Amino acid sequence: MKKKIKFLFRKILLSNSSDFEVTLGFGLGIMVGFIPLYGFQTILCIILAILIPKANRLSLILSSQIFIPPVMAVALGIDYFTGSLILYQNISFMRITKIDDLLYYIKPIFAGSIIAAPLMGLLSSIVFYYVFKKIRKRRMSQMTEGVSINNKDKA
After folding, report:
1. Coil, strand or helix: which one is 65?
2. CA atoms lying within 13 Å on the CB side of residue 134
3. Quick check: pTM over 0.70?
């Protein structure tokens, strides 16, 4: 699994997509990850990839897959906290004992995701842009050094 992720990340690094396109895809994927529609996130990513052709499709889908259960719990917590602030509800630990309790917690989670999803997508895009640009620049300089060393060996 780790090799597969490294391979996909290397594929993104070596793609012809600009830094902006890769970052746009990454930010959209994180945004989709914060929307509490688990199970439909990949479908949402495919729809976004069609609607926003500038976004790098691989980085969009790969970044949305970061939301495995431990990360999902953090995302839901951020959505719940944000939604509780928006709806002026008291923030409490989730204790679901009957179906009415579930409805009490769903409202702030969805309301919070309306604010938290784009905000987290934007913040992660800004951070990822600088990190990705630095990694790509270092990677390209390593590749050009390797070419120049090989050319010296041939001469």
Report:
1. coil
2. 6
3. yes
* CA dist 38 → 13, 16, 68, 133, 146 (Å): 28, 31, 10, 30, 44
Q: Based on the number of CB atoms within 10 Å of its own CB, is 19 exposed (0-12), middle (13-18) or buried (19 or more)?
A: middle
146 pLDDT tier (thresholds 50, 70, 90): low
Length of the chain: 155
Q: How far is CA 59 from CA 95, 105, 115, 143, in A?
A: 36, 31, 22, 22
Residue 82's CB is within 10 A of a number of other CB atoms, namely: 22
Closest alpha carbon to 124 in 71, 48, 70: 71
**Spatial separation of the C-alpha atoms in residues 15 and 66, rounded to whole Å:** 21
d(CA 64, CA 71): 11
First to last CA, the chain: 42
Please give the structure tokens belonging to residue 109. 């989670």
Q: Which of 120, 121, 113 is nearest to 26 (CA)?
A: 121
pLDDT computed for residue 51 by the predictor: 94
